[in-house]
Model the fold of this input.
Amino acid sequence: MSRSSRPVLTVFFDGLKPEGLTSMPFLSSMPYRAPLRTLLGYSIACHASMYTGVYPDRHGLWFLWQRSPETSPFAWLRKVPLLSLVDSLPARLGVHKLTASRCPYTSYWGLPRIVNLPLRYWPEVDVSETRYWDEDGYVPGYPTVFERLRAAQVPYDTLGLHRGGSGPHGIEAVEHKPLPTIKPWTYLFVGEPDGLSHRYTQEGPQTKAMLRRLDQIVEARYREFESRVGEFDFIAYSDHGHIAIEDRINPYELFEQSADDLNRYMHLIDAGYLRLWFRTPEERSQAERVLANVPQGYILDEETMAREHVDPGEGRYGELIFYLNAGTIFSWTTFGYGRKQRSMHGYLPSHPESDGVFITNCSRPTEKVVQLVDILPTLLDRLGLPVPAGLDGQPVLA
Done:
């Protein structure tokens, strides 16, 4: 059977690291595997790169929240008088609920809840991802695998690809959704490993039990393909690993200890990053003095960001970006408090537990380490489609 006539079954596991395969005997039995190098950042950077074949410094999606006053859905707050006088957690939740109900975004997270950011800054922020991964125009100028297959009139099926995080409906779709015909490409989206790893670590018994179940579900789909089409290509991969949390830092207390107030700066806090904007050079100097006292992290410099193919986007992702070392998180973030988080990702790709996995029945990968940007060109190549020039990735299966 020629390559272009062989169906391709692809399984994406969110957050599965190589060590997690010890709970997945079927996947471990596949003849070929390689580590997959993740990106500096979170899932938004990973998904855009694996679906488009280019790095974040080109597609522009690095963090979820960005400074973008021109497009902020909270711009209406500028007309609210005495906003600081009514600022409270209930007010923030109410403002978010009202704004989200009118927001047209169709992306995976939509308009996420903001908890720890004064209301006066909300008209300055917007999300960078406004469309869902498989929608046309998800990343303007960089077509995704979904767009390319539609343009080439190649039929495909997706199972478990749903909005708003992992959940039983995702597993049930992957396990039970019927496939009346086997199309050239079938994509199974499995989000459960990431959420469970955050809460229990990937080594926790709850996570291991789910990994065993997922392994059985994938094996059942694999056997279904064997019985229905005979020969087919199988590719499973993940976007990043997971690292157990050993230390937590309260960013607000950090500034208080230096007789400063974080809330006087425009700021956004992710689990492992504090991103700041300044009105004056003096503000920046003061923030740098505060952060110099934090041994668990450092300010990202241009050399590091260039090496990791990320770009602050002319300041929209931060004029200063402070990075926490692997195993450390901020206990207060823009999203909430993270008290139940026991494992995290988003750290430097060079950390060994940051790796994802790449598994296949096709052939030994031509690269010792697969890159996320290799996913799109590899899929196109296995489907017998031309690989466009100008991508950052390349096919990794001979």
In short: The mean pLDDT is 96. The domain at 3-58+132-244+349-382 is CATH 3.40.720.10 (Alkaline Phosphatase, subunit A).
